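BUG-319 | component: ligand-complex export | severity: low

The export step for NAP jobs runs without errors, but we want the raw record kept on the ticket for reference. Input record follows.
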Amino acid sequence: MTPRIAVVGATGYVGSELCRWLLEHPQFELAAVTSHTHAGKHLGEVVPGLFGLTDLILEPFDPRELSAFDAVLLATPHGISAEYVPALEAAHVPRILELSSDHRTDPAWVYGLAEWNESALLGATRIAVPGCFATAVQLAVAPFVAADAVQGPICIAAATGSTGSGAAPVAGTHHPERFVNFKAYKVFTHQHLKEMHAFLGILGTAPQLHFVPLSAPLDRGIFATVFIPTDERTDPNGLLRAAYADRPLIRFREDSPELRHVRGTAFADISVHREGAMTTVLVAIDNLGKGAAAQAIQCLNLSFRLPADTGLRRAPCTP
Ligand SMILES: NC(=O)c1ccc[n+]([C@@H]2O[C@H](COP(=O)([O-])OP(=O)(O)OC[C@H]3O[C@@H](n4cnc5c(N)ncnc54)[C@H](OP(=O)(O)O)[C@@H]3O)[C@@H](O)[C@H]2O)c1
């Protein structure tokens, strides 16, 4: 039987992106959607991009109703997910995938960096999907940590689009201010550092990360520039290509990856550049794709023991 999936917080940016992927997925059925503020309305009315593609009506959050589904995906804000999970567990929901930061360092949950935690994700029933910056940065850093090839502190400058802040309008995402601007924020203090230290520490010795997040005049996308000091004998290109040899959602580019090539996709595009003992890894992902909803579907696939890329090999719309 086709697994029936419910999305909580379906009207948000990540929630509606989950619905988009699930509506086209060959092995899952998007069977229920919930909303805190729009219960009773059609999903396609509140998320016009999905109009005509589904008859689903937004329901209020009710753990007992949700226990009828094979998996519940939580695309709710931090704090709300932590509130909802105990109620879902009490109602015996069989699988919970959580996209906020509430469970990313909780040892009872599997951390869903899919390329690096595949065996733990197979059949997993509690999955915490990584943050968008954390995904881009760790895809660059993890191969070096796992190979014990990091020779000093790692510096990261990573730019994000405005959808990273969610659908509710705030000053930092207001169009007249955002589209003419480029700035750093939360320098060395971004909340994703915590999950990166935690997971990289499982793969090997967690390196020191100097992380400067940048706010770019884009709606979608994360472009990470990651400077990794390596031994001159290390072959960084070979190291990364070997690490991702059988990972179909990682694509290597000779020149710089481009955000337009990953827009709306599940791909992470990577290039590797070396100068002496310094390696630079460039990573482009869609923050709502590989950085959130598409990686959640990748985790869901593995949880149901399907190939990780089932329903996810989709090209971007370019130009
Ligand atoms: N945006 C990204 O790039 C990104 C990437 C990775 C992870 N995440 C994480 O994914 C989660 C969703 O992010 P988002 O960007 O989609 O945010 P969002 O656009 O603000 O969507 C969150 C949705 O949750 C629902 N919600 C809000 N307050 C609620 C409450 N008090 N109780 C229940 N539901 C409430 C809202 O929909 P209703 O009122 O209709 O229920 C809202 O649309 C967050 O935890 C975020 O940190 C986001």
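Assignee comment: Attached the raw record above. The chain has two domains: 4-130+291-303, 132-287.
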